[in-house]
Amino acid sequence: VYSIPWITYRCGFSPIPPTNLTTDCGWGCMVRSGQMMLATVLQFHLLGREWRLSNSTDHGHAVHRQILSWFGDGPQRLHPFSIHRMMEAAILHGNSPGDWFGPSQVAILIRDCIWRALKEHINLNKLNTYVAHDCTVYIGDVLDIFAQDFNQSLLVLVPVRLGSEVLNPIYIPCIKSLLSLDHSVGIIGGKPRHSVFFVGFQDDNLIHLDPHYSQLAVDMTRPEFDISTYHCRTPKKIPVSRMDPSCTLGFYCHTLEDFKQFRKQAEKVLAPPMQKGHYPFFTFSEKRVGEIITPEISMISSSGFSDHGSKGSHWAEDDGFVVLEYEEA
Q1: CB-based contact 10:217 (threshold 8 Å)
Q2: Cβ proximity of 179 and 243 under 8 Å
Q3: HEC string of the chain?
Q4: What are residue 239's DSSP bridge partners?
Q5: 11, 25, 212, 318: which is the annotated catalytic residue?
Q6: Are residues 81 and 64 in contact, defined by beta-carbon separation less than 8 angstroms?
Q7: At what angle do helices 103-119 and 29-47 cross, to 10 degrees?
Q8: How far, in Å, CA of 81 to CA of 83, rounded?
Q9: What is the structure's pLDDT at 308?
């Protein structure tokens, strides 16, 4: 877990336009959780899943440092995934810095920031992204993405809501099985009022990295900036039953064939066991819903993840979700 980038609250950075905010403490935890997932994906994509900080080559350290610099807290183009640049994307969808974001909203922010980075010629080595719609991965849309370049890789983000107020326990086995897939890159979610990045599980506990730790912003324009505050030696655990029902799952597919393998593996574990009906965690459909892969489409809404609400949010509550709430057999 120590090799996974740990991105927390920061303070003392330049103001996030158009506000005077110089910290994201109190409102940016979900965005930080999303940054951790994206940084993890970039690490897998550019260094491989087996890369470890403790025994890395000089080249690996250089690439790792480059990845972290993309998340530096500043508005410059050399920080395409900074909280400043993510707020630029949020503003285009009607929100403002200081608003509270849900996991589905952050999925859209990640998508938009990756697309913008590609347009700005940031060398992501052909990484693209796809956000599922209504708990459905539309295969036609995914094939359209790969048709643009069959040599690209894909981050698949799947926002779901697994209950109305609390996690429906029938989905606990699915959560653990999906985290065990070769393609899993974690879950953006948390517990009520507290966003974290879930990276795995042990028995009936979820292992997570917690962004709720305020640290000074690091000047990543310096060649040998300090990376020690971007790694955590003490990950935390919570019972899976305490997980908030609203979350976004991430899956990394290196190639189109890899995506097909992901689908094959995922479909085996999406349905909760011992249930009368067929109530999958999410689904795959051969159809396409082409409008959802254009940057202009509005973000999926806040999910009611936190009692904080979204100050001034223009995203309607529950819009874009199929609430998975079923009785046990």
Answers
A1: yes
A2: no
A3: CCCCCCCCCEECCCCCCCCCCCECCCCCHHHHHHHHHHHHHHHHHHHCCCCCHHHCCHHHHHHHHHHHHCCCCCCCCCCCCCHHHHHHHHHHCCCCCCCCCCHHHHHHHHHHHHHHHHHCCCCCCCEEEEECECCEEEHHHHHHHHHHCCCCEEEEEEEEECCCCCCCHHHHHHHHHHHCCCCEEEEEEEECCEEEEEEEEECCEEEEECCCCCEECCCCCCCCCCCHHHCCCCCEEEEHHHCCCEEEEEEEECCHHHHHHHHHHHHCCCCCCCCCCCCCCCEEECCCCHHHHCCCCCCCCCCCCCCCCCCCCCCCCCCCCCECCCCCC
A4: 205
A5: 212
A6: no
A7: 50
A8: 7
A9: 34
Handedness of CA 178, 183, 187, 188 (dihedral sign): negative
Is 212 assigned a catalytic role? Answer: yes
Catalytic site residue from 210, 232, 253, 254:
210
Q: Is 29 a catalytic residue?
A: yes
Query: Tell me: the pLDDT tens digits for 5-62?
Result: 999 999 999 999 999 999 999 999 999 999 999 999 999 999 999 999 988 999 999 9
Q: Tokens standing for 155?
A: 């981050």
The CA distance from 271 to 173, in Å, is 9
Convert the pLDDT of each residue in 146-204 to its tens digit: 999 999 999 999 999 998 889 999 999 999 999 999 999 999 999 877 899 999 999 99
Q: State how far the Cα of 6 lies from the Cα of 35, in Å rounded to an integer.
A: 9
Yes or no: say if 301 and 319 are a contact pair by the CB < 8 Å rule.
Answer: yes
Q: pLDDT band at residue 291, thresholds of 50, 70 and 90?
A: very low
pLDDT digits (tens, 9 = 90+) for 128-144: 999 998 999 999 999 99
Q: How many residues does the chain have?
A: 329
